[in-house]
Amino acid sequence: MKEKKLYMIGNAHIDPVWMWRWQEGFAEIKATFRSALDRMKEYDDFIFTGNSASFYEWVEENDPQMFEEIRERVKEGRWVIVGGWWIQPDCNTPSGESFVRQGLYGQRYFQEKLGVKSACGYNVDSFGHNGMLPQILKKSGMDSYVFMRPGRHEKGLPGETFLWKSLDGSEVTAARIPFEYCTWPEGIEEHVRRCAGEIKDQNGRALCFYGVGNHGGGPTRKNIESIRQMKQKEELPKLIFSSPADFFAETRKEAKPLPTVTGELLHHASGCYSAHSGIKRWNRMAENRLEMAEKYAVVSDLTVGKRYPGERLTEGWKEVLFNQFHDILAGTCLESAYQDAQEQYGAALSGAAKVLNSSLQTLSWKIDIPFEEGTKPLVVFNPNAFETAFEVAVESWKPEEGTVLLDEAGEQVPFQYVQSEAASNGRCRMVFVAKLPSLGWRTFRFAVREDGRRFADVKADQSGAENKWFSIRFDERTGYISSLRKKNDGTEYFSGPAAVPVVMEDKSDTWSHGVRIFDKRAGEFTGKVSLAEQGPVKSVFRVTSTYGASRIVQDYSIYQELDFIVVKTMVDWREQFKMLKFQFPMNMNYLRASWEIPYGSAEREPDGEEYPMQNFIDLEGTNPGMETHINGLSILNDGKASGSVAGKTAAFTVLRSPVYANHEPYVPDEGLEYTYLDQGIQNFTWVLYPHDGSWEEAGTVRLSKTLNQNPISLFETFHAGELQQKASFLKNREKNVCCTVVKEAEDGSGDLILRFYETAGKNTKDRLELRALALDEELLFSPFEIKTVRVKRDGTLTETNMLEECRQN
Fold it and tell me: Per residue in 27-83, pLDDT tens?
């Protein structure tokens, strides 16, 4: 074996928010950075490793002189920038695009302000790492990755340093930190000896992180003096003041190949995936609204010349990225910290809403809408870059008798009246299904027609309904689904009562340390079902159920012209130390459970463990007696983040209610008052989508995008304009390729940045059409590839990395 080496990584893990609020974290960042600079003056061999661009932006604005000192130390090579991201986020719950933006804004900041970009990804405290990160890291300029969780007691690895690979084949060199990322001054020798014991391979090296952390602090004089003294002890490895970059540079020189690990790195703190419903929902809403605002800001810029508000959108993204910090988004901070987070997400949501509304209003004002007596125009926009059909609901003064809904060609479209949001005379709510062009709009109008066509109601009775695709039945005694049957082949999806709101005992702390399975059943909600709405567009079944002092109201919408069921849900939760799951016993053999992850998917064993989830989970298999028929059921959501599959029983997790910021081994004192998570009312929507074949073939990804980026409607007036009443700005042909981003480049050039990802794991030749620039271009995708392209205003297209630079593989 070669000479043993311990690479001593001086760092200060700083949680800007955790058991304290961001204002205290701000102060601690400045104090920690000041301490690190002072240690550099005292010890000429000391090297400091720092990350999180947001910290440096704070220091730059608050103490420019100290920022200049940092800049000089970076030039000197003793202050080493790692991470390249805006913050150390939760690495499962954010969208794929959020991870791209972490690198885009983080690396651009470091390059512009400090003259460097990080080559090393760095998330030492995040509670697990999604399986698409190697591709995102690689295309953001990073070829290595440092992490600590899950630890060796939570996930076995073939080596503590390994090649980490995502499904597309991208690889980065990853290293798991042994034991801890921080040390107290008195315990450093014991920590060094433990780390030395981890040098077991022929390469003879390991990382050893030191420095006071969590609330900042960094390496102390005692730390550094102790390391200097330990360098003289012959029984210890060679101790080197160093950085992760040096460690990985030496590792790559070795001829011996490293073991390979493919896919996600889980589990740690499984309860974090569902702790604090509010933060999960705010994050999902903000991510989607910012994407929508960017897309239509580009459309209005290229179509009618409205200036793209790049700085405003970037500031919104930074608010979102900061609050994706692993303790904030995980739900493990103080209650008061979530008041701050709500304000910051609110700022991002409000800013994006203003950009989006201004862009849409500008476009709709330019649509040619000739005057017609007694009509009321309505423009409906599709923020998705594919054709879609979805419910549109509008509130208005009640139209006169004989009113019909017409499309731009004068064809009648079914609509129906439903209960208004306003408890007031004269107001009404109208719903219809709009079939919309890709990233475009369509103009409808309400008009009076004496000879208007009457459409048949959705077929329903008091406990069930059907359309051309499926039938659904409810148990009148409980409110559970008793049957969901697909008509074309007779598939019965459930083996027993389904969509059952099951209450589980959950005595774990806020993180659920050491807990992976939540299956101790405490009871279930039961209730009643009633037919609440019926018309030509949809029938709505209202299921009202109770458990203890808690209540759930769910409205199941079954549509005449849609092949999925939309369930709007209100939960009024009053329980403590419990978890709520919606459970589905599947009537399938050869079950395959697929979960959406950031910019990808993962197939997981039905082992009952809690897993992170993005927009959907899909259950696919064969029904007993029909082994040649493959069928699937996608369960989609607009704000939930975890679930489980135990054998053939699937569930998505609605909420947990531990004490705020309760970390074991502390046990809540029965004599004290505490605040519990997720108390009170929350609203969300989920969807049941029964489909033929696999989810990859059935368009589940596109439906999940539509659920999260709904059509937007605007009542308009009559005016001349240069825009047609129906138009599409951009589209691509292949259903397994999803365009998620249309924005302007960050460099101010005015070039467009488009991002796509391949969803089904197959080589694909696709075609991109962007009519405003007369672009019709072929794009080639490898399986699970995330592709970024730059389009100039003259229509020329080039591929780039995720930093919007020339392409790097």
Answer: 999 999 999 999 999 999 999 999 999 999 999 999 999 999 999 999 999 999 999
- C-alpha torsion angle, residues 290, 291, 297, 302 (rounded to 10): 170
pLDDT tens track for 223-244: 999 999 999 998 999 999 999 9
Distance CA 314, CA 297 (A): 13
What's the CA gap between 74 and 51, in Å, rounded?
12
Q: How far is residue 83's CA from residue 106's CA, in Å, rounded to a whole number?
A: 8
> Is residue 82 within 8 Å of 243, Cβ to Cβ?
yes
- Tell me how long the chain is: 809
Query: Mind listing the pLDDT tens digit for each residue in 307-365?
Result: 999 999 999 999 999 999 999 999 999 999 999 999 999 999 999 999 999 999 999 99
Q: Which token pair is 387?
A: 């054709």
**Cis status, amide bond into 309, omega within 30 of 0:** no
Q: What is the CB neighbour count within 10 angstroms for residue 160?
A: 18
Alpha-carbon distance of 317 to 345, in angstroms, equals 10
State pLDDT tens for residues 305-318.
Answer: 999 999 999 999 99
Question: Is pLDDT of 1 > 80?
Answer: no
Nearest one of 736, 786, 599 to 92, comparing CA atoms? 599
Strands of 598-640, DSSP E: 600-603, 611-612, 616-623, 626-637
Place of tokens 């001054």: 185
Q: Report the percentage of the chain scoring pLDDT > 70.
A: 99
**Vertex 101: Cα angle to 100 and 105 (nearest 5):** 130
Q: Which tokens is 722 given?
A: 């240069």
The neighbouring-strand residues paired with 172 are 164
Confidence of residue 516 (pLDDT cuts 50, 70, 90): very high
CB 750 within 8 A of CB 100: no
Residue 808 banded pLDDT, cuts 50, 70, 90: very low
In the structure encoding, which two tokens stand for residue 170, read together? 């991208």
Report residue 492: phi and psi, to 5°.
-105, 120
- The pair phi, psi for residue 144, each rounded to 5°, is -145, 165
User: Which residue in the block uniquely carries the two structure tokens 């920590």?
Assistant: 191
As a whole number of Å, the CA-based R_g of the chain is 28
Structure tokens at 476: 């009148």
Report the alpha-carbon distance of residue 29 to residue 88 in Å, rounded: 14
d(CA 439, CA 388): 10
C-alpha 373/C-alpha 318 separation (Å) is 48
